[in-house]
Every structure is written in structure tokens, then in C-alpha cells.
Write a structure and sequence with these properties.
Number of strands: 31
Helix content: 25-40%
Low-confidence stretches: none
Number of helices: 16
Largest sheet: 9 strands, mixed
Distance between the termini: 21 Å
Mean pLDDT: 92
Structural class: alpha+beta
RNA sequence: CGGGCUGUAGCGCAGCUUGGUAGCGCACCUGGUUUGGGACCAGGGGGUCGUCGGUUCAAAUCCGACCAGCCCGACCA
């Protein structure tokens, strides 16, 4: 490619409002342009990187026996209704109607469609299978942000495994886990494997691949022993609290104006936060639930949803609460409540001398013994882990770090195969639902994470495996015939050796070419100018280190070519 | 969905308070001088000022509604 003919619109200024480093750099270096909130055009340089990302994914998926498909992005509503997710996905699913008025979904993932496809198999002899695609997904995110990191239309590699039994699924899951480690290694950034909530996917377990980053939107809990979990899933051990002996009767007392835990801490005759019961009202799949936890603890809503087995969980509205408990938030409690499902966090187990709302505005109850006075139906763990909590595995302090989710693998089980009637006959001639797993990688998000983790003040530093071009030949004075002849010759040599080369033959001053080459992040640069050509050499600069050296023109193809091959 | 902010040339912005018919830097075009780290001189092209409505002799500027984008929160595989 000749730079003079390429469309690489680099900018001198940062784009307005771009917060993430990767967003600024990808826009400035001419890789992407925003079309609307959460939708980006990939420009030619961006497409080149995307091709390389996809090629790596494809190699590793093929290496574990994957077969590539391409399924439609538009789906009939019917198929989503069969799994129940037409309703569960809510506003996150783009929906439209065709000319006949039929409901159509834009695919946000393909469990349903692959399960529908696999229903064509009929014998255990045809399993196991690993099927995948690299395809566009649509998700109507309430708040797209940070450039490519959170968008509404994006490319995903999604794979699905189909097995006769759980042991087969376990093997497929491990194969994908290992393939993902290889893929992210080749992308050149660090990932943590963490236990995760399966959310609306369902199934028996899932692992997320998380790239640590200060701009990440996920919080990962890690321990020295290697335990790592998304905060939506993470558990921790609580230091036990021994309340003094107190068999006093529950007593109601007036607390005018007290609305919050903090209010009651400072209220005369109140209680420390750890001796209060926080009473939260949720609607879990239409059913009201009281969720109790210690006053100084925070709720982890996803943990609550998972433990309740609820596919939709939302805080109750104030009028729903009034109808249920007869009081307003700030004075709520579970003492004496019997006709509502009550779940309590394990942090409240065995506690006495607690204070809680009286379900009577501006009144609270003291001397509450949780197990004596409240009809707790289930003890669950839905407290949010905080920095410094104790690891349940090794007992050391847990740390919380921010991270970006680049991959997520799920053991799905038979939820989708049952919904789509995807059964096979086993050795005994008995029909069994196929056991499924699903496995995703965000393509553009991975590109953004690479840039997020590898750049400097001058621009992007692409790893050799993903760079849009392996090497740029910057021609000083392209109007000088001997210089241009040497540059053109090197350009042809390197290309015929299989490298991606861009020849910067623009009629620009040298500084412009150097700045652009660094901004775009091309790993190797060869500078060809009249001065060097006269002496029989060129300058070779490595983007990542800044190391410069002169090379004899005759040695360029082998030396630079060797360096590129070694870096890949 | 709640809170905050922004919309003026391809990009980054000023002008709005105090209404009088639009400007700066970069980019772009032409000519010239330059050319090993974002050159200089001269000339030039490009904007229904987000949209609709209102006030006014007159609106980028004042008022209203709407649309879009960004940030914080809620939400989210």
C-alpha cells in the first residue's frame, strides 16, 4: 500500500469528549469514526487490525476442532419466545417489524439459533461438535461509552459446544478455556480468569476473561491464593460478631426524621450500622421479596438475583412498598411480616440486639433477635465484597480491581436444547437433550484493550501480530529519483517476502511522516533518504523501543524481515 | 430513566451576557521558497450557526419545544 493512496485520516487534535485513551488514539490515528452513540465505522487501518484479530481467533478455534458458520443477524421472535428470552432480554434487545407485521429481533447472541440448528442432529455418534461464527451482534445498551469498549453494534466470535453429557461439556469447556488463553496471549495483553455470574444465559457456571484496566466497568475480586471472581459472584468470609446476651422483648420507639442507616447511627438511642438491619424490597419475576442485610453492608444485586433464581429483579416502587408493608422506605422492617418471602444475608445469622424499621413511619424497633423475631425463609449470600474482606479459600485479604470483560465462557446445560427440542438418541436409543456450552470474545473490544494497554505519548504501539502494517518505509524526498528507487525496491522485496508494507511516498516533510507512523503505531520503520542512500544505508527504527540503527540497504530485507517474524 | 453539559466549516474552538446578517487555529486548493522530527510566504474555496416554532424592523445571539452527542448515576452476557 502506498500511503499517498491510502485513506488514513490522522488528526492533530484529540476528538472532543473522548475519555478512554484507546478511544482518543483510535480516532486520532484514523482507525475508527463514530456514526452515532455506540456505533462506529471501521476505517481501512481498523479493518486491517480486525482481520488479524479474527485470523488469530479463527486459527485457535479451528485448532480445537471448531467449524465456522455464519448465522443471520435477524431472527424471528418465535425462536426467542421458545427460550423465554424474548421477554427476559427486555429493552436491551433491538426489535423491529417486517412488512407483514411480524416481530423480528436483531441478534444479541445466538444460543437459540445454534440450538435450533443443532436440532438437525439425531445420534450421539454425531457428537461432540464445536460450532462458531464471527458475526455482528446488536445490543441496545442504555449507555454506550468509551469508544469501542461499550457499543450497540459489534463483532463477536461466538462458539457453541454440543455434547452427549456433562463430561463432554466439561471437556469442551476446558478446550475453550485453553484456546482463549492462547488467543489473548497472542493479542499481547494480560487477562485474568474469574468466576462469574451467568446472568440471563443460565447454566451451571461461567468464567470471564478480564483484562485489568482502570477504565474497566467490571470489578474483579482477587486473592493471593489465585481465587478470582467477578464482584457479581464473589464471596468472602465475615468476621463473626458476638452480641451480648439480650433476651429483652422487641421494643418500638419513635425516630422522627430518621430515614437512613446513617441517620439512625447518630440518632440519640439509635444503633451502630453493624447492629442495624437494612430491609430492601425487590420484585423478583413479579413476586415481592424482602432482602435483609446488615446496615453496614451493601447489596450485590446480581448475587441476589442469581440466588433467588430470578431472571428479572428490580427494586420495588414506593407505592408497591407502601401497599406491602404500610410504611415508606426509611422505616421498613421484617419483624412480624409473614405473608411475604423473606431472605436474609448470612451476615445477619445469629444476630441479636438489632435495630430495624417498624413498618410505621418514623418508628424503629430495638432488641430484635433476627432468628427469633423474623421469619427468614432462606439464608443467602448477597452482600457485596469490599476491599480487605477475607478470602473464603485462603483467609488472606481480598483486593478489588477494575477490569474489562473480553471473553466469557458458559456451561449452559440443556436450557436451549430443551427449548428448541434439540435431542439426540443415546446408545440405548433414548432421546436426550444435547448438552451445550457457549463461548464469546468481543472482537473490537479486544482491539480497544490492546490499545488501552499499549501506547505512549506519540500514539499506539501495536504488537507485531495485530499491527495494520508490519513496516512503514518513510521516504524522505520522494521527488529524489535514486531515493525513491531504493525505497520502491525495498518495498517490493519486503512485500514479496509476505510482509504488510506501507510506503510513505507522500509529498510531506519528514516530521509529518514520522509523527503519523508513530501515531498509527506501525512496529517497524525504515527511513530512506538521499543522505543515507548516498552512503548506501537506511535508518531502521523500532516503534516499541525507539531503538534506531543504520542498515546497509542490502541487509534490510533479511534483518528487518527477521525481526518482524521473530516478534510474531 | 434521573442529574449535568454541549451542538457554529472536515477536526478543535471563539462569537451569545449587551440582537444589526459569522470568525480563529488545523486540514483543504493554487503559486513560490523549503525538505532527516508536525515548515514559511502570498492568494483562495468551504458554514440553511442541530431542527421546528415564537418574540422582534432585524435572531448564531432572547424564549419554547423537540432531536442528537458527551459525562455522572441507574441499568447491562
Amino acid at each position: 500500500m502506498k500511503w499517498s493512496q491510502a485513506f488514513i485520516p490522522t488528526l492533530r487534535d484529540d476528538p472532543a469528549d473522548a475519555e478512554a485513551t484507546s478511544h482518543k488514539l483510535l480516532v486520532r490515528a484514523g482507525f475508527i469514526r463514530q456514526l452515532m452513540a455506540g456505533a462506529y465505522s471501521l476505517l481501512p487501518a481498523g479493518m486491517r487490525v480486525r482481520h488479524k484479530v479474527i485470523a488469530i481467533i479463527r486459527e485457535e478455534m479451528d485448532a480445537i476442532g471448531g467449524q465456522e458458520f455464519l448465522l443471520p443477524a435477524i431472527h424471528p421472535a418465535e425462536i426467542w419466545k421458545r427460550s423465554g428470552r424474548w421477554d427476559d432480554m427486555g429493552d436491551e434487545m433491538f426489535r423491529l417489524k417486517d412488512r407483514k407485521g411480524a416481530d423480528i429481533a436483531l441478534g444479541m447472541t445466538h444460543e437459540e439459533i445454534f440450538a435450533y440448528t443443532v436440532a438437525e442432529l439425531s445420534s450421539y455418534k454425531q457428537l461432540p461438535q464445536i460450532w462458531y461464527q464471527i458475526q455482528t451482534k446488536f445490543r441496545d445498551e442504555p449507555r454506550p461509552k468509551a469508544g469501542l469498549l461499550r457499543v450497540r453494534e459489534f463483532t463477536m466470535k461466538d462458539a457453541y459446544s454440543f455434547d452427549v453429557d456433562q463430561a463432554g461439556l466439561d471437556a469442551a469447556f476446558e478446550a475453550h478455556r485453553e484456546a482463549y488463553v492462547r488467543i489473548f496471549n497472542r493479542f499481547g495483553f494480560e487477562v485474568l480468569q474469574v468466576e462469574a455470574s451467568s446472568g440471563s444465559m443460565g447454566g451451571s457456571g461461567s468464567v470471564e476473561f478480564m483484562a485489568p484496566s482502570p477504565i474497566g466497568e467490571d470489578i474483579v475480586v482477587t486473592s493471593e491464593c489465585g481465587y478470582a471472581a467477578n464482584i457479581e459472584k464473589a464471596a468472602s468470609t465475615l468476621a463473626p460478631i458476638y452480641d451480648p446476651e439480650n433476651d429483652a422483648e422487641v421494643e418500638e420507639f419513635a425516630t422522627p426524621g430518621v430515614r437512613t442507616i446513617a441517620d439512625l447511627v447518630t440518632f440519640d438511642g439509635g444503633a451502630a450500622a453493624a447492629s442495624q438491619i437494612k430491609t430492601l424490597v425487590f420484585i423478583a419475576d413479579e413476586e415481592p421479596v424482602l432482602a435483609l442485610l446488615r446496615g453496614d453492608h451493601d447489596l450485590q444485586e446480581q448475587k441476589l438475583a442469581d440466588q433467588l433464581g430470578a431472571s428479572n429483579l428490580r427494586p420495588a416502587e414506593e407505592d408497591e412498598i407502601g401497599e406491602l408493608l404500610g410504611a415508606h422506605p426509611g422505616s421498613l422492617g421484617a419483624v412480624g411480616v409473614s405473608d411475604v418471602r423473606i431472605v436474609a444475608d448470612v451476615g445477619l445469622r445469629g444476630r441479636s440486639s438489632m435495630t430495624t424499621g417498624a413498618n410505621n413511619d418514623d418508628h424503629h424497633l430495638r432488641n430484635v433477635s433476627v432468628e427469633r423475631d423474623i421469619s427468614v425463609e432462606e439464608w443467602l449470600d448477597f452482600r457485596a465484597v469490599v476491599d480487605g474482606d477475607t478470602c473464603t479459600v485462603c483467609g488472606e485479604a481480598l483486593s478489588l480491581i477494575r477490569a474489562i470483560e473480553v471473553g466469557h465462557i458458559f456451561k449452559l446445560g440443556t436450557k436451549y436444547s430443551e427449548a428448541m427440542d434439540a435431542t439426540i438418541l443415546d446408545q440405548n436409543g433414548k432421546a436426550k437433550p444435547v448438552v451445550m456450552g457457549s463461548y464469546g470474545i468481543g472482537v473490537e473490544r479486544s482491539m480497544a484493550v490492546v490499545v488501552e494497554s499499549s501506547s505512549d505519548d506519540n500514539g499506539i504501539i501495536w504488537p507485531a501480530a495485530l499491527a495494520p502494517w508490519d513496516v512503514v518505509i518513510s521516504v524522505i524526498r520522494p521527488d529524489d529519483a535514486p531515493t525513491m528507487a531504493v525505497a520502491t525496491d525495498l518495498y517490493r522485496q519486503l512485500m514479496s517476502n509476505g510482509f504488510d508494507v506501507i510506503l510513505d511516498d507522500r509529498k510531506e516533510r519528514p516530521g509529518v511522516k514520522f509523527k503519523d507512523a508513530e501515531l498509527v503505531g506501525i512496529p517497524q520503520r525504515i527511513t530512506v533518504g538521499p543522505r543515507g542512500v548516498e552512503a548506501g544505508n537506511v535508518e531502521w527504527v523500532v516503534r516499541s523501543t525507539g531503538n534506531k540503527q543504520d542498515l546497509a540497504i542490502a541487509d534490510v530485507a533479511t534483518t528487518v524481515g527477521g525481526a518482524i517474524s521473530a516478534a510474531k
